[in-house]
Q: What sequence folds into this?
């Protein structure tokens, strides 16, 4: 047994130093030098102050802003310290009730809009921190935002098009609009 | 199904083989004690490690010593991970000042990370200090993966060695565990992880040791939460309902931490334990569709490469290709089912005036959508990874069915690093045994006779996980603390429990995460399941290796069944499906199958 214990303990300690200290510290060092912005969380600045991260979605409820996807985090939506989804099963009546309530809220904020509701606007994301909505979800809200801000709908639609990212290399993922970036650009628009 | 899904699947498989083949050849050199695979400088570091640890790298261990040493090494790991969670409040690198993790959760997490399961009952960003994440959990992401690589090396040596040292019987010659662990860490997992981690940071995965960052948001958001009194109990109104209070916040707290270094090895080592609760759905873990694609590739990379290493080590690449072919065919079938299932949205949501043409999006991220989420779900459960980029609880019933069945087959469709190949080789042995019965010859695999001892061990290894899954599920759905964790009504509630035990026993680690599993009942029961599921398989595998190593390797004759052609591939697939699927048909019928009928077949 002693012939097993010594190598086990010593190798455990040495390889822990290698993989548990040297490795993460080396990655941190390279990351800080080569990619300081990304390593620190891709912060978005306005007037020199951070207003969020381009990767972490924020909650918007003012109808003058584009709304993000619903978030299942608690107690507040888009809680950065409690990521997660609703975990509601497709067969769970609570899921349909929640979606129904969100559809009604969207309709109430924009009574004239009879287009079908884009699904991502009424379902919760996996992380609860989804920074994106689909281009369709942005276009669906364009009329409401333009009216409340006294802007031309076409100007808002152009803004959406400018902030739309396509599939990577044409095949990976889905087209998307970063809600925080879009709303910041909207505030710039006069 | 649209062509985009098929293109994604095809590009994935082509890139996988292009990367895995050369890596497999390199790994075969790492497994052979003579080569100096990464240059003389690292060779000297390696030799120094052995000298300090008192390891004789020339020692050829018997299967018993190899197994005992591995269990000791794992047990030390479990104790250290447990102790670090319990003491993290007194240790450095804890800027959020997290307190000690509860004893039952610490036990579950320790066992689960040491066994490459990474079932997570806790929520990382509100529980674990940076030190616990990087030196307790991430270290086990390395050790548990290289442990299984070592076991598969031992099994392959059992096949490859002609006869060991003239000694008769079970006893000698599977190689040296310490050498295998050290070399797999130094030459395979660590360099790959380092390169991948730097790439991840370049794409937006965070890597720092800062405090969580409070930023002022564009809008003040209001929310309600249950009111609590000074003693922490919820306040009730006259009717006995909890009172809620309206609160507002002007800030958002951005979590921080050394994520990229842990994320890289989490995928490459098929561990799957996320830094954050949302795992690879979290934008700080998996920020872009391109990163997502490479994460999927990195899950299958080493499991696929090991098949080629196997071919090289037994001196016949066709043997490796046959195993890869069986895995790939099974994988493609399951992937198509999951892609098809998630491409069809929830008809109940469609009936509310919602456009569901994008597939099922509840519990999915916009940047990934239905295709990249369904593919990820298939890959993470085909391999015993268990990372998730979508919430599996909200998958459509047949999407959840796919994930569950892939785990229940024993994690052999590429499977975990090392464990996938040794699991699949058991089914290969079972396959030649069944064929041998049919033609009335003593079965042989790779020139080694398969006799009653090997078949007993194969049976134990293959049956241990179904036994754990089915009895565990039965116990949990019969007892109150088990039923208390269920969060969805009806058939899906049963699926949540079945999924949990399938995941634990087969060392996957993904979950139908609505199940409240961070309770003493589930932490203890699943922790025990995880441990037996791991070593209940490894010990018989090493016993088989030891027995085979002591046998003469016979040359093939006209009567030998070839184990590299299409017939053999079909035989292996047949054994996997026969054993795995038939065991679980009744349980699956009660869960996802019923749920599917409830949603899609209206009376």
A:
């Amino acid at each position: 047994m002693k012939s097993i214990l010594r190598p086990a303990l010593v190798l455990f300690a040495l390889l822990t130093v290698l993989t548990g200290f040297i490795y993460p510290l080396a990655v941190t060092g390279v990351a800080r030098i080569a990619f300081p912005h990304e390593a620190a969380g891709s912060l978005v600045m306005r007037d020199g102050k951070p207003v969020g991260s381009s990767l972490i979605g924020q909650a918007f409820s003012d109808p003058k802003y584009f709304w993000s996807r619903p978030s299942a985090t608690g107690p507040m939506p888009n809680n950065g310290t409690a990521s997660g989804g609703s975990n509601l099963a497709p067969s769970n009546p609570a899921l349909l009730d929640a979606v129904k309530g969100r559809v009604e809220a969207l309709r109430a904020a924009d009574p004239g809009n009879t287009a079908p509701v884009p699904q991502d606007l009424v379902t919760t994301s996996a992380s609860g921190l989804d920074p994106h909505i689909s281009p369709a979800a942005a276009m669906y809200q364009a009329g409401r935002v333009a009216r409340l801000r006294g802007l031309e709908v076409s100007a808002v639609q152009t803004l959406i098009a400018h902030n739309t990212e396509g599939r990577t290399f044409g095949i990976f993922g889905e087209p998307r609009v970063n809600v925080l970036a879009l709303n910041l650009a909207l505030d710039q628009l006069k | 199904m649209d062509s985009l899904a098929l293109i994604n699947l095809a590009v994935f498989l082509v890139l996988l083989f292009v990367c895995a083949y050369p890596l497999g050849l390199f790994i075969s050199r790492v497994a052979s004690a003579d080569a100096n695979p990464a240059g003389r400088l690292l060779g000297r570091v390696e030799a120094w490690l052995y000298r300090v640890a008192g390891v004789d790298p020339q020692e050829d261990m018997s299967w018993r010593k190899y197994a005992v040493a591995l269990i000791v090494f794992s047990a030390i790991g479990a104790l250290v991970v447990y102790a670090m969670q319990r003491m993290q409040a007194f240790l450095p690198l804890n800027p959020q000042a997290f307190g000690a993790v509860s004893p039952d959760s610490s036990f579950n997490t320790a066992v689960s990370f040491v066994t490459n399961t990474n079932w997570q009952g806790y929520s990382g960003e509100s529980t674990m200090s940076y030190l616990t994440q990087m030196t307790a959990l991430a270290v086990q992401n390395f050790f548990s993966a290289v442990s299984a690589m070592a076991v598969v090396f031992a099994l392959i040596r059992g096949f490859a060695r002609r006869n060991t040292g003239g000694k008769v019987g079970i006893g000698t010659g599977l190689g040296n565990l310490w050498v295998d662990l050290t070399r797999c860490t130094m030459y395979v997992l660590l360099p790959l992880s380092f390169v991948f981690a730097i790439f991840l940071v370049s794409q937006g995965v965070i890597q720092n040791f800062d405090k969580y960052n409070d930023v002022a948001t564009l809008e003040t958001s209001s929310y309600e939460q249950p009111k609590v009194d000074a003693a922490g109990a919820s306040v009730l109104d006259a009717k006995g309902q909890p009172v809620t209070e309206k609160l507002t916040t002007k800030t958002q707290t951005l979590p921080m931490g050394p994520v990229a270094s842990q994320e890289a090895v989490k995928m490459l080592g098929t561990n799957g334990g996320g830094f954050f609760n949302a795992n690879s759905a979290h934008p700080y873990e998996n920020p872009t569709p391109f990163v997502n694609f490479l994460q999927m590739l990195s899950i299958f990379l080493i499991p696929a490469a090991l098949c080629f290493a196997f071919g090289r080590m037994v001196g016949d690449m066709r043997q490796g290709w046959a195993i890869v072919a069986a895995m790939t065919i099974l994988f493609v079938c399951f992937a198509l089912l999951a892609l098809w299932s998630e491409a069809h949205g929830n008809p109940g949501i469609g009936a509310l005036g919602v456009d569901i043409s994008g597939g099922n999006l509840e519990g999915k991220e916009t940047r990934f959508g239905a295709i990249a989420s369904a593919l990820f779900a298939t890959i993470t459960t085909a391999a015993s990874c268990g990372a998730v980029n979508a919430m599996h609880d909200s998958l459509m019933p047949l999407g959840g069915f796919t994930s569950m069945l892939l785990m229940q087959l024993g994690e052999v469709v590429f499977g975990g690093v090392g464990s996938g190949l040794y699991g699949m080789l058991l089914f290969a042995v079972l396959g030649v045994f069944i064929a041998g019965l049919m033609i009335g010859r003593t079965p042989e695999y790779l020139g080694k006779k398969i006799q009653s001892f090997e078949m007993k061990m194969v049976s134990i290894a293959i049956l241990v996980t179904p036994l754990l899954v089915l009895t565990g599920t039965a116990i949990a759905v019969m007892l109150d603390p088990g039923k208390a964790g269920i969060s969805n009504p009806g058939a899906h509630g049963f699926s949540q429990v079945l999924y949990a035990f399938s995941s634990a026993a087969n060392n996957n680690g993904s979950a139908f995460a609505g199940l409240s599993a961070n309770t003493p009942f589930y932490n203890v029961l699943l922790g025990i399941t995880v441990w037996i599921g791991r070593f209940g398989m490894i010990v018989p595998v090493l016993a088989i290796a030891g027995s085979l190593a002591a046998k003469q390797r016979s040359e093939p004759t006209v009567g030998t069944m070839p184990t590299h052609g299409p017939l053999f591939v079909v035989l292996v697939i047949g054994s996997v499906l026969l054993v795995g699927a038939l065991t679980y048909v009744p349980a699956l019928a009660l869960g996802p199958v019923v749920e599917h009928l409830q949603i899609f077949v209206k009376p």
Q: What stands out?
A: Chain A has a mean pLDDT of 96. Residues 2-34 of chain A form the longest helix (33 residues). The two ends of chain A are 77 Å apart (CA to CA). Residues 99 and 122 of chain A are 5 Å apart (CA to CA).
